[in-house]
Design a protein that fits this description.
The chain is an alpha+beta fold. It is built from six helices and six strands, in the order H-H-E-E-H-E-E-H-H-E-E-H. Strands 1-4-3-5 form a four-stranded mixed beta sheet, with helices on both faces. A two-stranded antiparallel sheet has the order 2-6.
């Protein structure tokens, strides 16, 4: 059962003003935003002729053109890639799925965590938490962490096998939406 933490204004506080289990906590109240990302990935996986799906957050920047061959080389035949390194949770502003190698199954499991409301058993409901959950639950699918180290602000995109092509202005859009 979801209960507010007793805060006078459930929408007060831009970050973690609520107790971790509160339904209004930052990592819970935006669940619908994060599910849209998951639904978009699932839809992309159904398009004819699509074999690899790469998610790039709108606050990520292409530093130079990145080819499908570059992504496939970095993935090395894995079902999906994410960026975690030594972080507590993956960065999902850049992630990819090879539908020929189990990526479709990974995405379906991710979608089902939301559809069945399994995500509600976690403190965090965001796509990063749920992606890490599927990585743990689907040991039959090879998932590759492309992060090689963690930058000073927890950034892992530039410190990854795809860092030559991407950077991530992490949180820029979220800060704008929270105003």
């Amino acid at each position: 059962k979801l209960e507010p933490c007793g805060c006078p204004d459930p929408w007060a506080g831009k970050t973690n003003a609520h107790a971790a289990g509160c339904q209004h906590h930052l990592w819970r109240r935006y669940a619908s935003r994060w599910f849209r990302k998951v639904a978009a990935l699932r839809h992309a996986a159904t398009l004819p002729g699509v074999e690899v799906v790469v998610w790039v957050d709108c606050d990520a920047v292409f530093k130079q053109p990145c080819s499908l061959a570059d992504v496939e080389a970095a993935m090395g035949g894995a079902a999906m890639f994410h960026l975690r390194g030594r972080r507590r949770i993956s960065e999902t502003g850049l992630m990819g799925f090879d539908l020929r190698c189990g990526g479709r199954e990974f995405l379906e499991h991710l979608v089902q965590n939301y559809v069945t409301k399994a995500y509600r058993s976690d403190v965090r409901w965001d796509d990063s938490q749920q992606t890490d959950r599927v990585v743990r639950e689907r040991q039959d699918l090879r998932c590759v962490d492309l992060a090689t180290e963690v930058g000073p602000r927890g950034d892992v995109v530039e410190q990854s096998a795809l860092g030559a092509w991407f950077t991530h202005a992490k949180g820029t859009l979220g800060r704008e939406l929270d105003r």
